[in-house]
Amino acid sequence: MCSFFCPFMSHGSVVGVLEAVILRSFGPEGGQVLFTRDTGQAMLSRSGTHILRALHLEHPLARMVVECVWKHSTVTGDGSKTFILLLASLLRKIHTTASREPHVSHSYNSLEAAEAATARHLADKLLAFALKELDDLIAMEVAPHGRCVSWEDFTAEMHSPANHYVQKLLASFFHMRLGYVHCAFISELTCELLNHWKCIDNLPYFALQFLKDNFPAIHTPVSGFPITSSRLIEGQVIHRDFATPYPQTDHQPIKAVVFTGYLQPRLLNTGDVLEVGCGGTEERSIVDFSAWTERSLQCLIANLQSLGVSVLLSVVKQSAAVLALATQAEMCFVDCVSEDELSLFAQLSGATPISDCWRIEPEHIAELTFCRPILLGPHRYENMPFFSLTCKATHLHAKNYLGTIHTSHLQTLVADVFIIRVKVKPYSLIICGSGEGQTDQYACAFQDAIRMLFTTWEPIPATGTTAAKRTVQSDKRTSSYTHVLTDSSTCTSSNLNPLHKCVLQPGCIMPAGGTFEFLLHHALLKLSHSCSASNDTNIGVPVSRLLASALLSVPKQIYSHSPGQFLQTRTRHNAIFTQDMGLESVSCKYELLLAVLQCVTSLLRVDTILRTHTALHTQSLADTSWESTEDEAEN
Amino acid sequence: MEMEGSHQMFCDMESLLACVGSQCIFCTGKELANISHLSKKHLKDAVYFNINNEEKFVVACFCKDSKWTSRSHYHCPHCKFRAFTRSAVFKKHLKSKHGIQSHMRREKASMIYKKVENSTGESKDEQMGVLKELQSWEGDEDFEWEPPSEAEMKVIQARRERQDKISKLMGDYLLKGYKMLGDCCDVCGTILLQDRQQKKYCVSCQELDSDIDKDNPALNAQAALSQVRERQLAAQSPAPSQTPELNGGPSNGQPSVSVPQPRPEHCEGAAAGGRALLPPPAVPPPPAAPSTTALAPTRPAVCPQNPALRPVLQEAEEAVLTKLRWATTQLQGAASLEASIQLCSLITSCASSLRSLKELSQ
């Protein structure tokens, strides 16, 4: 008996099930999910991503959706539950519209095929609309109701208004994620961290990007303590203990080098062939060889001593001979340091790691203020700060950032970054939690908060072609466009001022609690009305109306416990701002909408699912030896 | 060209569907004019032509006007609806006399014909589906979507609620650690779950009432009542009533037809209708199963003081006893919980009906 698969209905039901799972944790009144493992580990979480990833899902569509949610949350850090809500509501609306009007240009074998085709068509139209028009709509209609906080205003001064907004934004984020008990404390700690790292560069969001990329190296989770013990400490924490006894040195600055390879050549690896005693008159043996390597090591250590290096960091585990020699020379040695910590070290100190230990240049030597062990919970770590002296300022390597800079900015920025030298005093974050799971949760919350801030302040590149395109389209308003996708865009763009270049400003925040959804809903309805008024031969349902009605599902859920409040808020949107439900970022919401629409499009493109008995190898896709796919017969 | 009854030319599906009714205007005998009949019998062999850049068609007719009532014929709209029995002759006539090029669409109609044949029952949803199919086939995009009638709304609402319930239950199970499989249940199409012991579980089959069982009179007393009531109404009124629809969901009526008598939408309505016939103090309805007690009142309810009622009461007793026996045998073989509960309540109400009938006869 083969299992039948009704594609269209399955999308709605699968997403409906996921919606039912996260619904009870949604909103400020939402509860937490307790996870228990067979090993006895328990964890409480309200994070949508955690909950969804903890479910056992074998259904391919469900896994696809969870994958989309996870990818979205690695970018923006927030909104995974809202993602599922919006996705479910959009699918329902599309299904209703498609079954109402199967707008077909070809003939289909069955009603379901016609509906599925209509749904796909609607989803494509929605996505096209969102990519073209949505950011302008938000910038014009929704963003003016919020506030733009510039990152430069966010200073160390605790009572500046920008600081207040950022703290409030963080507080509402942590409230939703971790609960109201500690959200104030944690948001203050995050603000402190941001303040310390802010002076990393003049470009505002580089600091956030740096923190986002290097967060695993910047924070240290310590379990067994209450969350209120979390604090910042000066310097970078290397999560390894000294391999050699630590000699107390008083002289500053402490010089350190980083080794990526083995100092002593490994004697015998598998597959190595050691030729001993060839081509020479003397008899050579393996003992001679190892004696030779030790002598060379001694030279190396003497070389390092002459340079004044007292701290050695290594990626790999060095041999006992190296450690012995280092102890003898009174050098601290730390091995098996993780790659991202070393890369952070290299970035902060400006010293390149040494690959060839025989050539040690001055650029390989880093200068530290102090280097001491620190006991955090049950583990002993190393604490090494950097302090920029006036003679040697630290600078950042630009190459780490080139990949992430928007191409339009690339030319102007490359020159600047190499020239700028800034002083930076690094601080590490110690995150404490009562259990390992809790600590992990707090660490994830911090990381997501930084991602959210980065998304908020990341400038959305205003392509110069947008304004030009608009003027061209408004001129061509009367020309006959038969392509369906551009029909709606010519219609809408004719209503916008062609010369007004609307760009969503970075740092735009607005009150939370469904404000964004209400405003966008009204804006979309207005757009659809003006669109239908101007264009009589409108094909099909204006997608803006569909999106508008789907958006309302979010505030409906937020106010699910008090429907009266929902109606009140909906009708009197001037009074939204009197309610204190916290702040949220407009850019994050915009990214969320785009991600949801893209997920809808890819979901609706799935026609059928084939079960295979064996795993498909990806390279076999190019080969002719394709693994045969067959419908799996049940038992 | 006067347009009347079967002697008319149709320009779109809407106008043809206006002919949906209890009596087909194209047929001589008593024929229910629902969409499948119209499409199978008349639309399938329709002849299409273009007049003034508008496509129109004439359907195959079996009316009394022509001397051939057992064979289909076509009425030419330009010749005062002169009848032609063969399509080829008719098309030739159109071409030669009126210069109209015509064609037929047999293939597509058979597709629809097959679809209608294959559908399990003529539920409203299926008819709506056929309607849409016809519409898309015609390429007629001017067909206005009609808002669903109240009955349809109830169906849609019930389906949506059921789907929500299923989703909620499945969500709860997922949070309990069940695994969501990639398979669907063979019976109802819901996604299957698997528990820790590798046992498969279908939420809708094993927990919720089946959609169809609600209308199966063999399993549900309410459906049985509704069937009885319908038969009674059909027997009472001379006009033919709609065939009771027992399968494929609790559908009632059709989109654009005017039903001669109101169909009982819910069994409460039927029960209320049934109860209204009887004077109130006769039968006190037990609170557990208010609908099934109406089984007794649906029997001809005349004033109980009439001695001629005795044989009627005996009949009623016999009927109730039969039902009781039947319910008992069903209960013995009942598999699902809901069915058992229903049967038990049926037995309870049968017993109380018997008691009250005995009181009446004394």
Automatic annotation (TrEMBL), chain A:
Q: Which GO terms describe its molecular function?
A: ATP binding
Q: Which organism is it from?
A: Acanthochromis polyacanthus (spiny chromis)
**Top-level taxon of the source organism:** Eukaryota
Any one biological process term the GO annotation gives: chaperone-mediated protein complex assembly
Q: What is this protein called?
A: Bardet-Biedl syndrome 10 protein homolog
InterPro entries on file:
BBS10, Cpn60/GroEL/TCP-1, GroEL-like_apical_dom_sf, GROEL-like_equatorial_sf
